[in-house]
Amino acid sequence: MNRHPDDRPSHALVADLERTLGDPGAAGGPFSHAETVEHEERGALPPGAVDLIRSWGFARYLVPEEFGGGLRNLEQLVLLTRSLARRNLTVAVMFGSALLGVNPVWLWGDEEQRARVAQGLLGGDLACFAVSEPDHGSDLGTNETTAVPDGDGYLLTGEKWPVGNATRGRFLTVYAAVEGAGPSLLLVDKQALPPGSWDNHPFVRTVGLRGHDLSGITFRDTKVPAGALLGRPGGGLTGILQVLQITRTAIGALSIGTMDSVLRIALRHARERVLYGQEIYRIPVIRRHLVRSHLDLLIAECVTLPVARSLSVAPSRLSLWSSVVKYLVPTLGEEVVQEAGRVLGARGYLREGVAGGVFQKLQRDHAIASVFEGTTHVNLHSIASQLPAVARVADRPAPGADTLLRRLFDWSDEAPVWQPSGRALRLTNASEDEITRGWGPAVAEARLIAERQVPAAEADALRKVLDAWSARRAAFYTRIAAESLDPATTDGQDRATEHCVHHAAASCLYTWLYSFAEERATAPGTGWLVLVLQRLLRRLDPTAEPDESLPPWLEELMFARLDGPEYFSLQAVKAAAAAAG
């Protein structure tokens, strides 16, 4: 008896999608680099790309299991999106825009709304989040779109632009000022709108994501039913801020997928390109670019996946943690793209040649990751506004922290099934941040493990880097707790930036503690942690001297994953460590 794909673990599901989409470096197929570049040059998607994704059933994972789909949890969707994004970011963003458009329905919709939207998505329809307006952008407090009561419904008037999937999408979550209630969210179904009372705008020409439907829509006294309201009347602004927490986290998948692709392209080029009588990979500075990129990808994974799990485990923490992901992971992605460009040299500037010229597309496409769902500055402001409360309790044990951290960072179990509820999300974490507050106990445990289980060289290096981190951390949070912090200042933004790096360091340490228990007695099983902590420390202290040598196991790992179907990932590190043991 064949098992339903939804019954399989997430990694098995991803492996099936990988087989369906094929090797992007090979010739042929709508997701090959050659096909992607050829049609992207014309501002189009490769013929058959969207059909292939739909026939595989990707849309099922935009609909929670509770409402008849296949979506178990956000971690599952992040892993699937990573697979899609490493081939064609434009297609990934199309489905990501649909997710943003329907999440308000899953969180606050009534039974009829959820059933109708679920049926539409499973049947191939798209959705969008119609919030932005031409003159206001991310200023959500200013909203000129209005909904005036009219009989058994509302008359909707206003313009939303730019909006992903505004033209192709059937369903729209529209942010409008409802007369007598205030800013609210409305579910609009184009199929039910009176003809002639609305129209779509032409697609906007963009630097990247060519072929994506970035357009707009204008309503002119468009009649929508009273049942269009999503959630509490007047709760629109709060709803937007909450729903963005989910997609901010999911954006990490776009960056990690891009990192995988550009690192793979650069590493293969470094092996094939011969200069001065040798592969350019043998040039020390080239190897350094590649190793740093690989470590940054591992860091991004350590940061993204636990926060994705938190939607099922601790959704009230997302107000802070999602902004950390949204700032740090696209930033790491941008840097990995730059490092890969340095390896490619002049070849990285060409729209043909290496990997079919896809590098320039990846470079242009990924630039949007730090912009949508709140720009870098918007997310740093959100983090900075919460930092004083976190800093005041930074060294106090968080009740139940060990249990929560284990649920977030232990890979031995699948993430729990997400049960959508808008009531579970919060606008602020208050002082609750188990990830940074758990640093002290985690370091103490790591020291004991290093003494008893870890090879001498790795144990010594681990103790040194943990000491450096602990000293820096203590000074950082003590200063914030003692001083006032204005989130709007450059100092506030800088402090938020550093907090994100402390969050990342702690996330790497917990991943090692909870998911590498069987492997940490080997060189790769602990060596990866030392390397990523050294790499992160250098982000805060340029004088910190990371180990620039390339351990043999890391080199072997990179080349093994280059020629195989597996990702560059911590799962690969774990497998290498298990083999070494």
TrEMBL record:
Keyword Oxidoreductase: yes
Residue ranges occupied by any Acyl-CoA dehydrogenase/oxidase N-terminal domain in the UniProt entry: 38-124
GO cellular component, one term: plasma membrane
Cofactor(s) of this protein: FAD
Domain annotation Acyl-CoA oxidase/dehydrogenase middle: ranges: 128-221
Coiled coil: none
MF GO annotations: acyl-CoA dehydrogenase activity; flavin adenine dinucleotide binding
Domain Acyl-CoA dehydrogenase/oxidase C-terminal as annotated: residue spans: 234-386
InterPro entries documented for this protein: Acyl-CoA_Oxase/DH_mid-dom, Acyl-CoA_Oxase/DH_mid-dom_sf, AcylCo_DH-like_C, AcylCo_DH/oxidase_C, AcylCoA_DH/ox_N, AcylCoA_DH/ox_N_sf, AcylCoA_DH/oxidase_NM_dom_sf
Keywords for the protein's UniProt record, in alphabetical order: FAD, Flavoprotein, Oxidoreductase
The family this protein is said to belong to: Belongs to the acyl-CoA dehydrogenase family.
PANTHER family reported in the protein's UniProt record: ACYL-COA DEHYDROGENASE, ACYL-COA DEHYDROGENASE FADE4-RELATED
Protein name per UniProt: Acyl-CoA dehydrogenase domain-containing protein
Species this protein is from: Streptomyces sparsogenes DSM 40356
